[in-house]
Design goal:
The protein has helices spanning 2-12, 24-27, 58-70, 195-209, 234-241, 329-338, 343-355, and strands spanning 22-23, 28-30, 36-45, 85-94, 103-110, 121-128, 134-141, 143-144, 147-150, 155-158, 163-172, 185-190, 214-218, 221-225, 245-246, 253-257, 262-265, 270-271, 277-278, 281-287, 290-292, 303-305, 308-314, 318-319, 327-328, 359-360, 362-365. With 366 residues, the protein is an alpha+beta fold.
Length: 366
């Protein structure tokens, strides 16, 4: 329980481990500096009898015929019964500023009735972006994380053997047209919009790079005028400001997961004046049957006589003294943990305090 209390304290007081703030690059996204999603349709070969059934997945036969035709093999009118091939969807993310010849990771997922992609090899597959253009080509051996085994009357699966990845499995063939150096205005978008955080970002940039350079547009947007900067280029300016330390301000929020008993509490949660009492109702039913036997040399049968007892009792209630106003929730949690309250009971108490209007925070139940 003491370890749980220490873990809660680290969550309740992030300033203890983050006294110098968070880097700006971790708080905001820079306009234009983003990845692009790629997708392709391909074929995996070399499977050990775990591929698609061609009767159930006719598209696998179509793509296999197309690949063989491109390789000079005439398969017109032929019927395939191979079980070592599978049709797959290949996805990847083209990283920002990726250049032709760079390598990116790809994810491969079966779309037919293949039972496993372990040991398979992805045949050369073009990857398209939203504009329909080919930006990368993927090929290589698949690393599948799951495992599947089956017999005549049973089957067991661990993980997802019908999906896998190919590290550095695609080569970038086309670059995204983007002139970052020609931009005259840069926009920063906060990942968690907040007026206080946006104001702190604006102030930190103006102090570090020049007064009037940054302007807070709204709670989630800060605009930077690149024309008035003394930096050699926008890249030099971003390198200068992306490591600025900002102390973010967050909403008061309590997040609980009833399935695992996990409770996460932000720093600014407050509790008004309130008193809490918690008691448990215990129902106990016991069975103590008695065996009755006849006397020696007497006629009769051994009989089992049921004997039951049931009782209801109240466990000692947990009572808290009246909590003064403007108390932090961390003080209440510390007191509850000292009394041996379980996480599930703690969730019930927090829900009741919120229902009473004494918990000043967003209460999120997952």
């Amino acid at each position: 329980m003491r370890q749980t209390v220490l873990a809660f304290l680290l969550i309740l007081f992030p300033g203890l481990v983050c006294a110098q703030g968070v880097r700006l690059k971790d708080l905001a996204d820079f306009e234009g500096v983003r990845g692009n999603d790629l997708v392709g349709y391909g074929l995996v070969v070399g499977l050990d009898g775990t591929g698609d059934g061609l009767r159930n997945a006719p598209f696998t036969e179509d793509i296999m015929s197309n690949i063989l035709e491109r390789l000079g093999v005439n398969v017109t009118g032929e019927q395939f019964r191979a079980k070592n091939v599978a049709a797959v969807i290949v996805t990847a993310e083209l990283q920002p500023f990726a250049r032709a010849g760079s390598r990116i990771d790809v994810t491969v997922s079966a779309i037919g009735d293949a039972s496993s992609l372990r040991g398979g090899t992805l045949v050369m597959t073009p990857l398209n972006a939203a504009d329909g253009q080919i930006y990368a080509v993927a090929q290589g051996s698949i690393i599948a994380g799951g495992v599947a085994a089956e017999g005549e009357a049973a089957r067991i699966v661990q993980g997802v053997p019908t999906a896998g990845s190919i590290p550095s499995g695609a080569t970038v063939e086309r670059e995204v047209a983007f002139e970052f150096g020609a931009m005259g205005r840069l926009v920063l978008a906060l990942k968690n919009p907040d007026f206080s955080t946006a104001y702190r970002v604006e102030r930190a940039i103006n102090v570090a790079a020049g007064a009037g350079l940054a302007t807070m547009v709204d709670a989630g947007t800060i605009a930077i005028d690149l024309k008035s900067t003394s930096a050699n280029s926008p890249s030099h300016l971003l390198a200068q400001i992306e490591n600025l330390r900002i102390e973010p301000d967050t909403l008061a929020r309590v997040v609980v997961d009833q399935r695992s008993g996990t409770i996460v509490i932000s720093e600014n949660v407050r509790v008004s004046r309130v008193a809490v009492s918690k008691g448990n109702l215990t129902l106990t039913v016991e069975e103590q049957p008695i065996v009755v036997q006849p006397n020696p040399f007497a006629e009769g049968e051994t009989v089992v006589v049921p004997r039951s007892s049931a009782r209801i009792g109240n466990a000692p209630a947990v009572s808290l003294a009246e909590v003064p106003g403007s108390t932090t929730l961390s003080d209440v949690i510390t007191g509850l943990n000292a009394l041996g309250i379980t996480p599930n009971d703690l969730i019930d108490i927090l829900k009741t305090i919120k229902a009473a209007g004494a918990l000043h925070a967003d209460f999120v139940v997952m």
